[in-house]
Amino acid sequence: MQQMALIGSGGGGCVYIGRWRGVTVAIKFIVSSNDDQLVRSQREALLSRLASHPHVVQTYATSVTQLAENMFKAKGRAKYSIHEVLRQLGAHEQQFLTMVVMGPFHRDTTSWSPRMLLRSTVRTALEIAHGMQHLHLSGLVHGDLKPGNVLLKGSNQDKRKFVAKVSDLGIAHPVGAADEMSIDDGQIGSIAYMAPEVFKGRMMKASDVYSFGVLLWQLVCGTGSSPYEGAHPMAIALGVSEGKLSLRWPPGVFRPLQQLGELCTQTDPAARPSFKSVVGALEKLERHMQRLAAASAASGATASPPTSGILASNSGPGGGR
């Protein structure tokens, strides 16, 4: 590993950006204190390898190491300092450290015009929806979909210079024919992105659709915005679970994306669209925007993007199945 820099931490793990075999990657470190935690970290790595899709993060390599005293000491001019990682994790001897190498990874520094930003938002949302649809077709519920669990792969073939990939299957759940499962408090993901039923001990594919709706709100509002900003996590959990707290979409938001976000974040899981429907709606919206852009270029006039109607035929209830 080379040129490592911390980009995020929490929940017993941390993620660095770094170079691995000449490729810029995300490296996730997970510390485990017991067999159950170790099995969970290894299961995440396995699921990431099995869930192969253009919009699900690829896992290149994994390793598990039992921590020893000498690993907590700096080693001069090492390519990267594992003791710094362990300090970041608050680890101690006899624990296990799982390293998951994922990527490639790209940091977006592009600035766009408002029109290009809107088209980029639709394309990014579509790629995330594609990745989630694949997980659901594979019988998996992600359980913790949020902006921090979407990584960007560099791409010179895309005007955005990246493509989006769903990552972090740390609390992903296989679901059977019943399409839902019971969970405990330790299996709840990031509070602000969780569906009402999750706080009542139920996880299903429709729960991921709800999380996508919150993520879409954040894509539209900007990465500097946080859902329910300033509210205490307990207040969020209580308000969402009782159907008394919902996202406020700011004035002037692109109406079709707001409509889709509101459909995805309905309190009743059965009323939410499936990811198949979400993908269909976003593809239809993207095609419509492309036709408008082409017509605008041909005529020299400025065409306005659609404000309604794009989602009507694609957003029927599906309960996320």
From TrEMBL:
InterPro entries: Kinase-like_dom_sf, Prot_kinase_dom, Protein_kinase_ATP_BS, Ser-Thr/Tyr_kinase_cat_dom, Ser/Thr_kinase_AS, Ser/Thr_Kinases-Pseudokinases. Gene3D superfamilies: Phosphorylase Kinase, domain 1, Transferase(Phosphotransferase) domain 1. ATP binds at residue 28. The keyword Ribonucleoprotein does not apply. Residues 296-309 have a biased composition (Low complexity). PROSITE patterns: PROTEIN_KINASE_ATP (PS00107), PROTEIN_KINASE_DOM (PS50011), PROTEIN_KINASE_ST (PS00108). Residues 1-285 form the Protein kinase domain. Residues 296-321 are annotated as: Disordered. One of its GO terms (molecular function) is ATP binding. Keywords: ATP-binding, Kinase, Nucleotide-binding, Serine/threonine-protein kinase, Transferase. It comes from the Eukaryota. Signal peptide: none annotated. Belongs to the protein kinase superfamily. This is Protein kinase domain-containing protein. The lineage of its organism: Eukaryota, Viridiplantae, Chlorophyta, core chlorophytes, Chlorophyceae.
